[in-house]
Fold this sequence. Notes:
- By secondary structure, this protein is an all-alpha fold.
- It is built from 6 helices and no strands.
- The protein has helices at residues 8-25, 30-37, 41-48, 57-67, 71-81, 83-89.
Amino acid sequence: MVRVPLSPEDVRAGKLLGEMLRAARGERTLVQVALGAGISPETLRKIETGRIATPSFMIVAALAEELALSLDDIQGTLRRASPGKLDAAS
């Protein structure tokens, strides 16, 4: 399977998602949140730093639940980062 390079919008949205998750984590450690969401701490670290710019829906949903974030809020934040991209997918 050939990987399509990420667009600048994807990279920007990934960084924004990472920042949002990091802020929502607050005083909790990366390990606490990762294990609570059922993912590895390394995966969460990569998402928070933008190295995984497009995590799977299941991972985002698990993190949202663990951090008490709504998927609507996440989508709204990402929509502001790349307005045309998410609107086309709706």
